[in-house]
Amino acid sequence: MKNQIRTLAIAAIATLGVVASAAVAQRPDAAPSTMIAAPTEAHKGDADGAFVSVSRFSEPDGPSIYKRVCAGCHMSDAKGAKGAGFYPALAANAKLASAGYPLYIVLHGYHGMPAVGKMMNDQQVADVVNYVRTNFGNKYKDKVTAADAKATR
């Protein structure tokens, strides 16, 4: 019995080490000497390709980003939700008329909304903002660019 417990404990510790090393990302502002661990090729991304690294989304366009990242809270129809939290509707939302507003929120967060734009490149941020502003009953045609996202960071 002692040997079985010991074997299970060793396996658990080894598993935790693998999970911890996969979860620790290199901070972009950290000097190489301060890195704890960088993801290895074997740990980059998840099984269905949601991340290019443990800190970056891989989706190539606005609809894909919305479906994978935003719809979890704002719902697939962008009508929002109430329950354990409040997730405002993005559908037919007059606050999206100013392109700078959703751009700022995606990049910096607001109230309970995390700054998910930190896990996207500038083009991905522009793409998802443009997607939301031109879908779900929103008809705002002025587009934001990757340069706008970079300037707002």
* CATH homologous group name of the largest domain: Cytochrome c-like domain
How many whole angstroms does the radius of gyration measure? Answer: 20 Å
Task: Give the termini separation.
Answer: 57 Å
Oligomeric form: single chain
In terms of structural class, how would the helical and strand content be classed?
A: mainly alpha
Count of DSSP strands: 4
Please state the average pLDDT score: 78
Name the helicity range.
40-55%
Strand order of the largest sheet: 1-2
**For the report, how would you describe the main beta sheet?**
2 strands, antiparallel
- The CATH architecture of the largest domain can be given as Orthogonal Bundle
Number of helices, where a helix is a run of at least 4 consecutive DSSP H or I residues: 5
Give the C-level CATH assignment of the largest domain. Mainly Alpha
**Range of strand content:** 5-15%
* CATH fold field value of the largest domain: Cytochrome Bc1 Complex, Chain D, domain 2
The domain tally reads 2
